[in-house]
Amino acid sequence: MEYLSLGKVIDAFGLDGTLKIYSTTSMGEKRYKKGAKVFLCNDENNEKIECEVLNYRHNGLFDFVKLNEINSKEEAISKKGYEIRVVKDSKDLDKDNYFYSDLVGCEICDKSLNKLGFVKKIEEFPAQITLRVGRENKPDFFVPFIEVFINEIDITNKRIIINVIEGLL
Length: 169
Prior knowledge:
The chain folds into two domains: 3-90, RimM (Elongation Factor Tu (Ef-tu), domain 3, Beta Barrel), CATH 2.40.30; 101-162, Roll (SH3 type barrels). Helices cover 5% and strands 49% of the residues. The chain has helices spanning 28-31, 73-77; strands spanning 3-13, 18-23, 37-42, 47-59, 62-67, 83-87, 107-109, 115-124, 129-135, 138-144, 150-154, 159-162. The strands form two sheets. It has a six-stranded antiparallel barrel with strand order 1-2-5-4-3-6. Strands 10-9-8-7-12-11 form a six-stranded mixed β-sheet, with no helix packed on it. The chain contains two helices and twelve strands; from the N terminus they run ββαβββαβββββββ. A hairpin with a 4-residue loop joins strand 8 and strand 9. By secondary structure, it is mainly β.
């Protein structure tokens, strides 16, 4: 089963066990609906705890989520560093949409279809989402994930065609 990361627990919020989460999802309202199933995951000890969402709110970069299974500030603090994940399910997407994770591994080409590299990682900076592009024997370069740079995304064939401007490479 494949999972999507929604964010990382950075602290407790309040006394009732509400988690303060550094958010990495743009779909918080949908992902944290009351009754939704999420997983608290710690890759260091392979712990995965299935939880049910009781309450959610968003403020800036942070999600505040109350889970049925976490009921005190101390329990919430013990989950610091855990990642919040959900099962990846394509039916959650509208037609012609994709998950950011689907972009990883895509070939990056210029308008003439010359291969420039491949998407190594999706970087989420405060200003915008950015693609980290890996190349053989050359340093990585970054492509802002905005319309000016992205000409075409073909998830089926794992190819992204970009507009190369001076200084990008």
